[in-house]
Amino acid sequence: SLNCLGVALLDQCKLDESENLVREAIAITKTLGNESQLANELNILAGILEARARLLNRIPGQEGAAEAKYSQAEATFREALELEWRFNARYSAPRNELNNLSLLLHSHGKLKATDELFNDALQLAQSNMNELYVILDTWLSFPIREGRFADAVTNLIRAVEINPDAWRSTWNQLIGTLAI
């Protein structure tokens, strides 16, 4: 598929070609109405836009262009996340989209937006305890990186209350993040 070819080109750092193919795949998928596939393709496109932004950021004088690409990546990750929540929320949380958007926001110092994203995700997943645990487990590392240890411990306690059998995994993530 065009999507797979776009990813292969991304792996070869052929960002222009990769972006064009994935955009073409998105256009086709929109006509077919497959929202889950569309969310996946948007997530891939957002990753390409983020990679382009990182490259532009290394070129003197291209900071504005890099920031524009980062903004496009954020908007595209948000669109993918919204689609995936709408399509698949009753089954599972959109982990890839949530993780990718949260990493982008966090890497740009948008700490409040990162916290809001996870709080929104917790609200959307409130009826599914397994997904609540996954979201909390994912969110756990962000406050630690910022030195907000009390928030991290709060999330750890909430995660363990939801899934007591998985406390070792959550604890190991906490320890691993502290070691970084």
Please describe what this structure looks like.
This protein is an all-alpha fold and 180 residues long. Helices cover 82% and strands 0% of the residues. It has ten helices and no strands. Helix 1 packs antiparallel against helix 2 (15-32). It is globular.
SSE topology sketch:
Elements: H1 2-11, H2 15-32, H3 35-57, H4 63-88, H5 95-107, H6 111-124, H7 129-139, H8 141-145, H9 149-162, H10 167-179
Keywords:
0% strand, globular
Order of helices and strands: HHHHHHHHHH
Distance between the termini: 39 Å
Per DSSP E runs of 2 or more residues, the count of β-strands stands at 0
**Fraction in helix:** over 70%
Rg result: 18 Å
Shape: globular
The biggest beta sheet reads:
none
Query: What is the number of helical segments per DSSP (H or I, 4+ residues)?
Result: 10
| Contiguous runs where pLDDT drops below 50 for at least 5 residues | none
> How would you state the average pLDDT, rounded?
82
Strand content: under 5%
- Structural class, by secondary structure, is mainly alpha
Concise overview:
This protein is mainly alpha-helical and 180 residues long. The model has no long low-confidence stretch (mean pLDDT 82).
